[in-house]
Design brief:
The structure is a single chain. By secondary structure, this protein is mainly alpha-helical. The protein has two domains: 5-91, no CATH class; 103-164, no CATH class. The chain has helices spanning 5-32, 37-61, 63-69, 73-93, 102-111, 114-120, 125-134, 145-151, 156-164. Helix 1 (5-32) runs antiparallel to helix 2 (37-61). The longest helix is centred in the N-terminal third of the chain and has 28 residues, at 5-32. The chain crosses the membrane at residues 12-34, 46-63. InterPro entries: DUF4405 (IPR025517). It comes from Azospirillum picis.
Length: 169
């Protein structure tokens, strides 16, 4: 029995592409918002790899059409602009330094008490308590940012971000 490649593409690859794209998008937004990052990071990374593999297969299968698009000035300009923008954005936001780990910094800060974390965020303890109170968040100087966040439906990184956004400039 012969397998019809066109049917496999339409009935299998297209739905898998849609699902991996959707899940990568949703988990990427969750990571960007620091919402349940520990829960979704692994699935985001590996499903993005699966999506990339499917996209590469799709590109290879449709290479002639792809090169036809690039013969048009508008398509070539859009391709070049998006590629340059991606490289520039990655260069501006990425870090290659040994030991550069923002996650470890936020974890350490989140586990710290408010009285320890506030000065690191450019605030006095009383000012930090005022910022949290104004946001409707109950806190005491000895509470960790994680504990404060849990009581308010946030995580410690979100509490640190809130405090840092209120530091004097």
């Amino acid at each position: 029995m012969a397998i019809n490649v066109q049917v496999v593409t339409r009935d299998v690859v297209t739905p898998v592409t849609l699902v991996t794209f959707f899940v990568s998008t949703v988990t990427g937004i969750m990571l960007l918002g620091h919402w349940n990052a520990g829960l979704v990071r692994f699935s985001h990374e590996w499903l993005s790899v699966a999506f990339s593999a499917i996209a590469a297969w799709h590109l290879a299968k449709n290479w002639r059409a792809f090169t036809g698009y690039l013969k048009r000035n508008a398509a070539r300009a859009a391709f070049t602009a998006s590629l340059v923008a991606s490289v520039v954005f990655t260069g501006m936001t990425g870090s290659t330094g040994a030991g550069a780990n923002a996650g470890a910094v936020f974890r350490a800060l989140s586990e710290s008490s408010l009285e320890t974390a506030a000065p690191a965020l450019g605030l006095g303890v009383e000012k930090a308590l005022g910022v949290l109170k104004a946001a409707g968040i109950d806190a005491a100087p000895g509470d960790s940012l994680d504990a404060i966040g849990q009581r308010s439906g946030r995580n410690g990184a979100a509490v640190a971000s809130l405090l840092a956004s209120q530091r004097p400039r």
